[in-house]
Design brief:
Layout lengths: L4 E8 L2 E8 L2 E7 L2 E3 L5 H8 L8 E12 L8 E4 L5 E7 L3 E5 L3 E2 L11 H12 L11 E12 L14 E5 L5 E5 L6 H12 L26 H11 L5 H11 L19 E3 L2 E2 H10 L5 H7 L9 H19 L5 E2 L2 E2 L6
Parallel strand pairs: 4-12
Antiparallel strand pairs: 1-2, 2-3, 5-8, 5-9, 5-10, 6-7, 7-8, 11-12, 13-14, 15-16
């Protein structure tokens, strides 16, 4: 249900009645419990969607990053401490780049409007330049981006001091509402288990936690088995370069073997969009990973935008829009290429 907005959530007769709105219009759902994992919008969901008065809130802290040309030729990372007491990192990124971050700034605007400011960019450049033999300059920067951390508002005096721990708050004033404040990708499974533990009393038939060591889709291979998979993929598809095959394995793991089918030559993959992205991969992403726009493909599910021109990305966007319309009639229904959702992150 990506690209679907929650319009309202109301408690009625011991259940949640939830109205969502997507490309196909409005839909009503019912649930015995509701988990508010709205990220930076968690407080908005509490106050404006569920319409609950609460003293709890979220503190939005912006973390900005810069991506530069490759600054070193090995696969190890650096952590630097600055004169202000903060720590930043410089890590190898997408094989040909270096990622430097991050900042801590209170964010007062809409979460979707977060961006790396010139001040933050220059701060990171000056910080890193204290350590590298050659100063890192604006000319080295190829891309910048920013995210918003939805931290629990614990009243800390500064963005840096605000708690990074996630907080799970259970509202039992009727059908249960579990509000999730904070959280990060590195601890998402622990957070999910903790969240379900909070809800377990309402679901006595629920099974014990089981996900801790279960592989994600495509991740069913040994941690040191990447190179072997790359070689297997190249053997199955002889046209793949080492870079291309490596990118596919890092992105999709063992699922990469299903993207090109039995193709032995590149010409059967359809249109070439640049950056080793072909029509076959795009259609697989639309059918299996709910991609509907170029941004979904080249920025959200990969960073191929670093290797593609603006014209190539625009052409990809047009192709995907045409394909979605042809497959769904612009209704968001299931088409010939699979379930093409009207949604995004």
């Amino acid at each position: 249900m990506t690209r679907t907005r929650v319009v309202s959530a109301d408690r009625q007769d011991g259940l949640w009645h939830i109205t969502t709105e997507g490309a196909g219009g409005r839909t009503l759902h019912q649930a015995r419990a509701l988990v508010n994992a709205g990220g930076p919008w968690v407080e908005d969901v509490i106050r404006n969607v569920a319409r609950i008065n609460s003293s709890e809130g979220v503190r939005l802290v912006r973390g900005s990053h810069i991506v530069t040309k490759k600054l070193f030729d090995h696969d190890r990372s650096y952590f630097f401490q600055g004169t202000d007491g903060r720590i930043i990192f410089a890590i190898p990124y997408e094989q040909d780049f270096t990622l430097i971050g991050t900042t801590d700034k209170d964010h007062t605007g809409a979460p979707k409007d977060a961006h790396c400011t010139e001040e933050e960019r220059d701060y990171l450049l000056a910080f890193a330049s204290q350590y590298f033999a050659r100063p890192v300059t604006r000319d080295d920067v190829v891309w910048t981006y920013s995210g918003v951390r939805p931290l629990y508002n614990d009243g800390a005096k500064s963005a840096t001091a605000a708690t990074r721990d996630y907080v799970l708050s259970l509202d039992e004033g009727g059908a249960p509402l579990l509000n999730v404040f904070g959280g990060k990708i590195t601890t998402y499974r622990r957070l999910a288990e903790s969240a379900l533990a909070k809800l377990a009393p309402f679901f006595p038939a629920a099974k014990p936690a089981w996900t801790a060591r279960v592989a994600l889709p495509g991740g069913d291979f040994p941690h040191d088995g990447v190179e072997a998979l790359v070689q297997q993929l190249r053997a199955a598809h002889p046209f793949l370069t080492a870079f291309w095959a490596g990118r596919l394995i890092r992105a999709y793991g063992t699922e990469a073997f299903g993207i090109f089918g039995t193709a032995r030559t590149q010409d059967v993959l359809g249109r070439d969009f640049g950056g080793t992205l072909t029509e076959a991969e795009v259609l697989w992403l639309m059918a299996n990973e709910y991609a509907v726009s170029a941004a979904d493909v080249v920025w959200r599910r990969s960073k191929l935008g670093l290797r593609m021109t603006a014209d190539e990305i625009a052409a990809l966007d047009r192709f995907m829009a045409d394909r979605s319309f042809a497959a769904t009639g612009a209704t968001g229904a299931t088409g010939a290429t699979g379930a093409i959702s009207p949604a995004a992150e």
